[in-house]
């Protein structure tokens, strides 16, 4: 067994209606003024107001920044950081999916240490603790509430950069399944498949450990057994709870095991063509799983048994069975079958491959990949 390390430094609250515990968490953190980072979509459907009301009813102050966008940019982070400094707040709430949490983490870094977020690109460049963050996911997908990274688009380079440091882990996470039970089916599908891929890639990672395996296996069991019924009926409370917990466990897994080629390749797809992150991952997954089959050492069969519709164990398993099952799951969830269907064009493949092959996740991928192979993978997925 290889050497490994992990820590679980966060306080995590799970339960239907657990959002109501927010004032207690703020008081425990001795914060009377909180800065809420979210987006206009959640404002429109009343989720932002719900959080604001809970905070303010407890006699606490809440200042909000609601201009987070999908695939958030350096400019968004700069604007949010400016607003935070001007507000006088002493903590943050990150409400939403991965974009809101990425902006909050990046804002926390700039609020504590200044400079530009590009100064912190890469591994472990954040020098110390950042502003305390309470992460409240409204999707079962990103796992950002328990991960140590922020992905920010640098438009000057047309590049999705990663800032990775365990100093950025949110101090608290509030997992309230009620917040994901009003999601449209398409959002539930793309976020849910993203969470599944987090667990799957962490499970296959070169950096996997007994800790990450335990988190990944439970995540695949929870998500694989519930994603179809949750997408079919978001009011299914049992399925919603399973998806919420599964997403968080998947986040814990990849926070320590990293990911692989799927995520390395999806970031350029989103940067160049503005494809939703979960959709890009799902479209790429069958191609990457087929490519990585040469390196499999028995884990494909375990993944297959977690995600297949029929729950009896596989007989005479072959890797192609997993590939076929993933394609079927994508089809069941309404995920497009190819990159061309989401607007990706051949002329950007070489540029995307050059970005992907230097992504840190490639080091975790179970099969080594050079530039030519990365180009071939993009063409196959196209």
Description:
The protein is of the alpha/beta class and 382 residues long. It is 49% helix and 11% strand. It is built from 15 helices and 9 strands. The strands form 2 sheets. The protein has a 6-stranded parallel beta sheet, sandwiched between helices. The protein has a 3-stranded mixed beta sheet with strand order 5-8-7. Helix 4 (74-87) crosses helix 5 and helix 6 runs antiparallel to helix 7 (210-224). It is globular and about 60 Å long. The mean pLDDT is 94.
Write the layout of secondary structure elements.
Blueprint: E1 11-14, H1 22-28, E2 33-37, H2 40-44, H3 47-57, E3 61-65, H4 74-87, E4 91-96, H5 98-113, E5 122-123, E6 133-137, E7 149-154, E8 159-164, E9 172-175, H6 185-204, H7 210-224, H8 227-232, H9 237-257, H10 261-273, H11 277-292, H12 299-307, H13 319-332, H14 349-357, H15 371-381
Parallel strand pairs: 1-9, 2-3, 2-4, 4-6, 5-8, 6-9
Antiparallel strand pairs: 7-8
Helix pairs in contact: 4-5, 6-7, 6-9, 6-11, 7-9, 10-11, 10-14, 11-13, 11-15, 12-13, 14-15
| Order of helical and strand elements | EHEHHEHEHEEEEEHHHHHHHHHH
**Oligomeric composition of the shown chains:** single chain
The low-confidence parts are: none
What share of residues is helical? 40-55%
What is the number of helices? 15
Annotation keywords:
six-stranded parallel beta sheet; globular; alpha/beta; 9 strands; 15 helices; about 375 residues; three-stranded mixed beta sheet
